[in-house]
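Q: Structure for this?
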Amino acid sequence: MIRLARRAFTLGGALGLLTGCGRGVPPGRTEATLWFTYGGRNREVLEELVGRFNTAQNDVWISAVFQGDYFEGLAKLRTSIAARATPTLSHVVGEVIPYLAEAGVLEPLDDYAHARELGIIESLGQTGSWVGGGDRPLVCLPFNRSTPIAYLNAPVFEARGLSAPTSWEQLREVARSLTERRGSDATRFGFGCPIDWWFWTALVGQAGGKVVEDDGRITLGDEAGVRALELWKAMVNDDRSMKPPPGRDYNAWEQTNQDFLAGRTAMIWTSTAFLKYLEENAPFRVRAAPLPQGRRRAVPTGGTHWVMLRHASREQREAGWKFLRFMHEPEQAIHWAVRTGYLPVTRGAIERLKREGHYDRHPNDRVAVEQLSVALPWPWSRELFRVQREIVQPRLESAIQGGRDAREVLREARALGARGRG
Amino acid sequence: MTRRSLSPFAVNVVLLGIALLWLLPYAWMVSTSLKTLPEIVKAPTAPLPAGLNLSAYSDVMRAMPIGHYFWNTTVMALAIAVLQIAVALPAGYALAKLRFRWRSLAFILVVATLLIPAQVRFVPVFTLLADVSLINTMTALVLPFGVSAFGTFLIRQALLSVPDSLIEAARLDGASELRIVYGLLAPILKPTLVAFFLFSFVYHWNDYFWPLVMTTDEAVRTLPLGIALLREQGTGVRWHVVMAGNVALSAPALLVFALTQRHLLRAVSSKAL
Amino acid sequence: MSPGLLPRRARDPLLLLAPTMVLLAVFFFYPLLSAAYTSLFDWDLLTEARYVGLENYRALHESGELSHAFSTTLRFSVVVVIGSMALGLGLALALNRTGAFAAFVRGAIFSAYVISWVSVALLWLWVLDADAGALTALVRGAGLTPRSWLGDPGLALYSLAMVTIWKIAGYSMVLFLAGLQDIPRALYEAAALDGAGRWSRFWNVTWPLLRPTTVFVATTSLIVSFQVFDVVRVMTQGGPVQSTTVFVYAIYEQVFMNLRVGRASALVVVFFGLLLVLTLLQLLAWRRREAAR
């Protein structure tokens, strides 16, 4: 019996090996794996760049593996860290980087050649993305960085002689006037936006607040937080001009895109990341616009940063570094940005795009770049991702979709946040 | 049992309607998979595609090594089913045919594991396998399912009706216990084993949970995992691609079902012992 | 239990059982104990675990997470068990006959049991899509206002329950069919001679004789519905507003999204306790039935 089991096992093992070997790393090259977390168009562009890198030199082979959306990919990355079977490179949302850095799983990059001389735009790199980020060991480099922007169905706006709202009052007004109903069933909503912490953070900033104070206190913006949430509530429940998309995480983001493309919403807020996707798939002209201001203008930055994992071998990390440097050359930074809608992350890239007149030809691409002047940094807080996932996000949903009072849910969240820090 | 009050025709019409409740979603899946993205955006509920467009299928092939996933899934399900039978046969034999001190206790232990499903075990098993660097291996997918309480139970019950004299005769011929188990009893139990094999194979071929939590690597990714990933694109769901993937995932299962319907139904109903 | 043969060597039974017992110990009993132990720690998989006593249980209880997961799972289970059993029994009664047509309908319904949960979830995600889904179009076509099947916190759990019923009704149908076929025809004939009508025959012959099957189907579908994960993971990720965060999904989310392994282990312990209670209740029901005979 044991013999039989063993036979079954060697068979299984041999088959597994056989299939595992079919990945085609050319002999003599160091393989470094790279995990990425988006599909569709952005995936194609990344794979193209990886392919470019692999053919441009003969030492390193980057194997790019798709791991689902950000949330799923993050779960996978943590799993792999716990199992000590990490990739060499991955890209990770900003909210989690402090946690991973403090847990000691990220490779410090300072000692790699030219690490601080890549010409990275300050507000997109570690220095400007986190309060005090520049004083810490360098653990990440910007990759696909974004800000939230507004997308407008241009013909619909033009037919009504409306322009992009520049204040919260205008936002409500425009959304109301663009909403169309047949009976009680809305055939088109004026506004759509995922009920997501990122956009709420933008609103908190615009209302003059901060989610986490510089000293680490989790205030959730106090009054500003409440005003931000109440704006949404008013638009969903009172004006009925905002379509609350179903689902969580990327379900909601995807749904927001689909609603816009299908003409079910006339204006949406989402990441600049989807600019090219929306431009190409919309059967109408798409116009991008900056987010309106409340008491002030403000946006968070979003998207991901490259990180290198400590568990990778020395050779793999060296190989991974070569790829990171390659990606920050203007050529690649530009290719990535103009093909997807993400921000170019180096000064060299932006200057060249300006020089070549790219932003005059593609005014939509300019919106996110210009918004960088009002981008707010995130706190360097270990607990930030838990504040987001466990405390804030479910309560935003329960206020909008569950009909709970904005002030009350945020008070509850603050209390939980204070305890979590204790 | 005649049903004179309802006309057989009316009953059949109702039954046909019910069958359609199950069949139409499949038709809908196939139809969507043959559409293009602009078609879906424009008229999502059009019953038929504009033409026979296979681009969604080539998109699936481009997005993932689907043949490789298919192979992984099959190897995994096969290995589990074979291992379960190999382990359960001697155990079932000892529990059904041999008299020894701990028999009742052993039997209770086996049956008690029905209470400890994968969802209860995965956290500690994950950390255990991580400690010995077995995450992302076939072993992590197969070994934790090596014992099937249901399979052991089924084999034991089937063995109860095999006469002792058969075994005594084999012993007189000098056959070892292992020979008796695998050489003599296994062929006698063939119908039970085939039914159980099918049941176990289909179950694990379809499994999503365990591969999801035990693997991160493409090399051991299974088909249900890969297909579910098609939905998580981040930009916008491309339903035609997701449905094309779904056809690839469900068609083999439906085909196996069509071919082995009789055995499979027996495997399922034999649970009601 | 048959008296059985004497083993040739005393250690034979133990050797024969050894692979089973080793696997059971490593992959079933050790994990259970380990979960109980881990539930006393604050641990994120990445850094050193910290002993916190019963803090994880307290936090789960105080945040309402525990009772929420419990009530969500329970409501889901009740709907699924009752729905799939009623449907399965009805179909079994209607389809308990020979002929190609009946076989075709049986096959169509059972097919959903054979395909994977992921397939079913993706399929219905598309059918139930709030804007572009086929069901939404049907409802709209009938002149009614469609609701957001998966986006409405008051509805999403029941939409998932409906999908689950669709998936497993074929299973209970097959079991009920097997049960029906075990009922001796003579009993019906005798009842018919006594002048019993269709309903009376059902209540006096079919229903009592199906009881073992009913208990079995109830138990297995209860366990299946308690372990629901795939449809939640693929269709709603526990939302909207955590209205579909069932037990297993809560465990998954604590481990992989929130990196709280200790808290997840505490959930595991409670979840196992629940399964244990359910099984004991079922055993009790069996005993009572045996005694009643």
